[in-house]
Amino acid sequence: MITEIYCVSGISGEAENVFISSGENVRLSCNNALSDCKSKYTWIYYNRFRHLAIVELIAGGIKRKDTERHERLSLESDCSLNIKNVTEEDYGSYTCRKYVNGQQQGPDERVSLNVLHVSVSPSSSPSSSSSSSSSSSSSQTEISPGRSVTLSCQLYSDIGFSCDHWVSSEGVELLWVNQAGVDLKTDSRYQILSSSAPGHCIITLTTTLLNEDNNREWRCQLTRRNQLKTSVRYTVKYSVVYMWHYVLN
């Protein structure tokens, strides 16, 4: 099990890992909260790759209006933090901290939010939707047959470990699969490549589109010890103009 100990800018303690896909809603729990939590608890955010300092999100039940995700945040009665329409920019460490008379009390309750996101080349105008069981989001793109398309699936994480460490220590794996759940590495039509960058694990799918690919679905899924944690579906949708041309010919 990955247990990360923070000693950055006053943040300490072990972190729970949460995996989510972009476009979904997520609820981060504050397990040590009391009944009067809203007046005594503060949620703070830190990302070693995006910020040089801690960002205070909610203090005493009041949202900070100067944060970039202000409109998407809300607080439950048990002090759980809700984030609507998660983006790849939201990945990082979220800490629930108790204050009494201005002094921190007890250990931090920390959650590491890891976000799965798919981008498309050539560029497109995707629309997103979410489903509930084992997180999944989807996108649609209007493109045409004969063109090469590359789907880049990235896991954004500020854990600080390499992708190889994720795989060897936690059994975390990224896969591109078809609608039947078959690994696309087994099909020579697709070129599947894996790579990594600081804070990102990346797996790309490249293929040349065929006429019969209209409405075809490909899915990037993240598994942990062979259990599905979250996924992103990508659906090919050809333009109406092209489909009329295809039918007439």
Shape: elongated
Q: Beta fraction of the residues?
A: over 45%
Uncertain runs: 1-12, 123-134, 241-249
Secondary structure: helix percent: under 10%
* H-E string: EEEEHEEEEEEEEEEHEEEEEH
Tell me the number of strands: 19
What class would the helix/strand composition place it in?
A: mainly beta
- Compute the separation of the termini in Å: 57 Å
Radius of gyration: 21 Å
Overall residue-averaged pLDDT value: 79
Q: Give the number of helices.
A: 3
Largest sheet: 9 strands, mixed
Characteristic key phrases:
single chain, 249 residues, mainly beta, nine-stranded mixed β-sheet, 3 helices, 8% helix, disordered N terminus, disordered C terminus
Description:
With 249 residues, the chain is mainly beta. Helices cover 8% and strands 50% of the residues. A hairpin with a 2-residue loop joins β10 (92-100) and β11. The strands form four sheets. Strands 3, 5, 6, 7, 10, 11, 14, 16 and 17 form a nine-stranded mixed sheet that branches. A five-stranded mixed sheet has the order 12-13-19-18-15.
What is the gist of this entry?
The protein contains three helices and 19 strands.
